[in-house]
Amino acid sequence: EPEVTQTPSHQVTQMGQEVILRCVPISNHLYFYWYRQILGQKVEFLVSFYNNEISEKSEIFDDQFSVERPDGSNFTLKIRSTKLEDSAMYFCASGGMNTEAFFGQGTRLTVV
Amino acid sequence: AQKITQTQPGMFVQEKEAVTLDCTYDTSDQSYGLFWYKQPSSGEMIFLIYQGSYDEQNATEGRYSLNFQKARKSANLVISASQLGDSAMYFCAMRGFPTDSWGKFQFGAGTQVVVTP
Description:
The complex is a heterodimer of chains A (112) and B (117).
Chain A: E1 5-7, E2 10-13, E3 19-24, E4 31-37, E5 43-50, E6 53-57, E7 65-68, E8 75-79, E9 88-95, E10 101-103, E11 107-111
Parallel strand pairs in A: 2-11
Antiparallel strand pairs in A: 1-3, 3-8, 4-5, 4-9, 5-6, 7-8, 9-10, 9-11
Chain B: E1 3-5, E2 10-14, E3 19-21, E4 24-26, E5 32-39, E6 46-52, E7 60-61, E8 64-69, E9 74-79, E10 88-96, E11 105-107, E12 111-116
Parallel strand pairs in B: 2-12
Antiparallel strand pairs in B: 1-4, 3-9, 5-6, 5-10, 7-8, 8-9, 10-11, 10-12
């Protein structure tokens, strides 16, 4: 079964540092998403990406965040200057032309 | 705007019993997909089952079935023969087709299921 792969599974970083979270979506998918989930809280939408550009973003996705699809396979989320409140589980998801879509296993980001 | 409602914050179920997790949704999109995910304490989001809005038959995947009632806008998950390993948070989610492309997932608040021996 195809799967979405995220690396690393866990990242610890110091406040103010830049982090890049990586995702390898399913190869023939066209839609890509990043979500986050602060521990014990709801799953929050960050950004969606289609046709090589951002199609929608939430209020959370401010200037500190950016996404890229640098080589046609990877899909990355960059946080330029991490804050303590960025500590969360970050999920990548990809979807095809039908309604099916899959999430990665998540990256647990801890900002200290 | 889309909305997903899960009214059961937590449920206890005995091993081998069936359990139904409620999910209602609201959308103006003509096409949409409904998903259920399981999130164990380890945190990963595990895909369980999916129902497209135009699918006439209810989806089934092993012990999971989705009771899709389009007119009522409900998509309840039924887990048959519960196992201890089913203890987890369960999320209902929807992905719609608002214009000419697929939109984001909208998640419910989740239902915490605890299976007891």
